[in-house]
């Protein structure tokens, strides 16, 4: 899968946490790649490890990390070999940045938003403050925030505006990759549609790549070039958006798609019976086996990743 | 006390036992819920006009959805119906009785007739109570003294919300349940007094996509089998279709459009409704190639809403010297379909 167009490639990425009740295998052997100026959506239910995947990619590890291993190739070089300080200096916010979950509430209440946007530039690129503020102003125009808002504080902005500010902060150092963790889940429908308009425009104007982590399948189609479906710490399907939204391969993806209520069209949504397995105590074999309508004898063994029409699916059905 | 409450119930239900669909259960007339703003604790600084001139009728066994963005007043409307907010002006009639005139005994009766399904199930359940205790509580409050009868009713309602086998759940605490199961407990609690009306405030917005549909189907099933009236408050238009007969669209404290569901989805009349429909996506890879037309700006402050139609500053079809001056009345577009918009005068 490696070619010159690959911006990011993950190989067997693992992130496990230590808790009082045992080891949580939040990200458990993720393989995945992303091209330049491409948007990949990571879909999954809550607790499937998608936010941990974002943390693992950016190496934002909590203190109770039990295992962090695998390879992260960025522009062809393995950034996992860098030590923390090198990673902070040369990778995070230079090559890739993050819009965290509930980003609109993560702004510093006692700093003007303009100063907050300018800060990454000053820290990472050593730019003078007035220069940095100029870039921040340009970024505000990109995301559709009036320039006068540079002098405002976070509480003076609406939720949608704060979300845009958080996106501007992730973009100000012009990273090649921005990871968005549930960027619109707390926002209203109209604001949400507006933010996706902004992201689509940015993708065209700045040629940024995006990883969009979400559980909202319907809105994720607003940005997706490709879709990766995550289940119980693993990626079970990677498809191009066109084929995924019409005919998902993995039984879990199919169930997930069937559960989406639709505004247009007459299909009745279905629900998925059962619950995802606990990440503390994962079953052997296919992790979706117990909820899968198509499960058969082979499913007790761990399924391989099968390539089918340039799509990847981790399921015995396609063997 | 208990006896009095019981006789009051018999008196009133005796009249309405027919339960004919088409009879009005709840009638809201010119409801206004304003909250006073104080300066330094005592100076008057204006009002937050959360709900302004809202009127509608809800029939027995009918489900309506109230759709709107956060801050449009839908929760204030719901709280007034539940009797948690006092209306500033206007009346709420339940089975013909005005809740403004209720005394303690009437409230006791009313609270048995109206169930409430909260948005966040975990926050709505007392963490130190077992499921059994949570579901028994309303029965105890409403004077069911016999422990066996209580248990029987709890088991029955658990069966209805598909928390079965009941023995597996009775002794569990809320944190031991999944989100979907917690929401079932909340629904069971709302159902245990066998109400006539359920008010559900975003009952699925905190749940996972796969569980969401399950809970909505459960609610719909209960609504149909018990001939319940239901007010379903949501911001998600895509779930409404599976759930309710009618939709009310709220914007900045007003109901701007009332319509049967199909009619509204096919023929949205108010420009705000049309914008909401445009903004709601269906999973489709073609979405990524197009931009959506979204009205500029944000909902107005409810302290000093715009004059005339409250949507006019964002509306692309506004009529000068009309929309910005005079508040639009409701116009009938087709049978049962009303829009408060000057385009239809």
For the record, the count of structural domains of chain B works out to 1
CATH topology of chain B: Rossmann fold
**Overall pLDDT of chain B:** 88
CATH architecture of chain B: 3-Layer(aba) Sandwich
> What is the element string of chain B, with H for helices and E for strands?
HEEEHEEHEHHHHHEHEHEEHHEE
The portion of residues forming beta strands of chain B comes to 15-25%
By CATH, the topology of the largest domain in chain A is Rossmann fold
Strand order of the largest sheet of chain B: 6-7-8-3-9-10-12-11
Give the beta-strand count of chain B. 12
Strand content of chain A: 25-35%
* The first-level CATH class name of the largest domain in chain A: Alpha Beta
CATH architecture group name of the largest domain in chain A:
3-Layer(aba) Sandwich
The strand order across the widest sheet of chain A is 6-7-8-3-9-10-12-11
Radius of gyration of chain B: 21 Å
Query: What is the number of domains of chain A?
Result: 2
Give the name of the CATH superfamily of chain B.
P-loop containing nucleotide triphosphate hydrolases
Tally the helices of chain A: 9
